[in-house]
Amino acid sequence: MKSLYYYRDRYVRAQPTAFCPGCGGGIILQCFLRAIDDLGIDKDRILAVSGIGCSAWIPSPYFDGDTLHTTHGRAIAFATGAKAFNPDLTTVVFTGDGDGAGIGGNHLIHAARRNIDLKVFLVNNFSYAMTGGQIAPTTLHGETTVTSPYGNPESPFDITQLVKAAGATYVAKWSTYHVVELTNAMKEALQHKGFSFIEILSQCPTQQRRVFNLRGALESLPPRILEMFGESTYVRGRPGKTGYLYAVPKGDVKETLIQAEALEGVKARIVDHIGFGQVVRVETKQPEVTREKLGGLSSVGGVADHLEKKIEVGLFERSERPEFTESLRAIMRKAKGE
Question: pTM for this one?
């Protein structure tokens, strides 16, 4: 097994990181470096394009290859020009939910429609994080940000489904919790001919303590958020383990835990959940019986099924159709009479 120093020394420029402590950017960069190394892609044949935002720092200035750090929301537009000019480049775009789906949303859907051979890795931290934590197109309904202190009145984009519907031929969604799956998805995307898109749910302790209403010391948040991603997702086609419920508290979650633990034949613990906040996860061999008992507890405001409000991750699309730069070259040859 190769050490972390191998990837650092081979692919990363030696300079201090700009990421906040606990940021998911380092995990994503590590997955990318492992993917290109496993595939044997020459770093000198890669162009990494980014826009503005925390995600833009993932390749630029750290990736020791050609990088293009562009204007806000325009990374895909710049990458389209580069790929059209030099189709032999492996052109990778690192963008964020605000940069790629908000300000650059039109570029995203039209690049997917064209099926241009770009590899777009969109980092979703559920807010405009670098500029202070404002509402983004992915901020969940009801969540608090600096521009929605009483809750977000909007519903978010499902970016994965949006890009799939726009015509992308490779679409996946993973999180920084799923490092093996994310690395493998990056390898698949890098080998796919056509518009390849991976949405990556990523932790941002600096802003997500507000977005997800997480209490506690800042240094405790990165592992909690990663565990929350694991708790709040399920793999497409594999709903996973059953036999547990979520007790949503009316008030103090600790009181709900005490009451749940008193029930016979259950195991209970407090977990963080993207859809519900802090809840009590109750393991049981008799879900329906336990649901009724939990519903009768004075501290419980609701009982949720094990898949309720969870986010589906996995592979959403893999197909083939004409790729833009190949079609463009064919038309150019035709115009020249070749």
Answer: 0.94
Q: What would the 3-class secondary structure string for the chain be?
A: CCCHHHHHHHHECCCCCCCCCCCCHHHHHHHHHHHHHHHCCCHHHEEEEECCCHHHHCCCCCECCEEEECCCCCHHHHHHHHHHHCCCCEEEEEEEHHHHHHHCHHHHHHHHHHCCCCEEEEEECCCECCCCCECCCCCCCCCCECCECCCCCCCCCCHHHHHHHHCCCEEEEEECCCHHHHHHHHHHHHHCCCCEEEEEECCCHHHHHHHCCCCCCHHHHHHHHHHHHHHCEEECCECCCCCEEEEEECCCHHHHHHHHHCCCCEEEEEEEECCCEEEEEEEECCHHHHHHHHHCCCCEEEEECCCCCCEEEEEEEECCCCCHHHHHHHHHHHHCCC
Mean pLDDT of 319-323: 97
The pLDDT value recorded for residue 142 is 85
Percentage, residues of the chain above pLDDT 90: 77
Domains for the chain: give ranges and CATH numbers. 4-231+312-329 (3.40.50.970), 241-306 (3.30.70.920)
d(CA 119, CA 186): 9
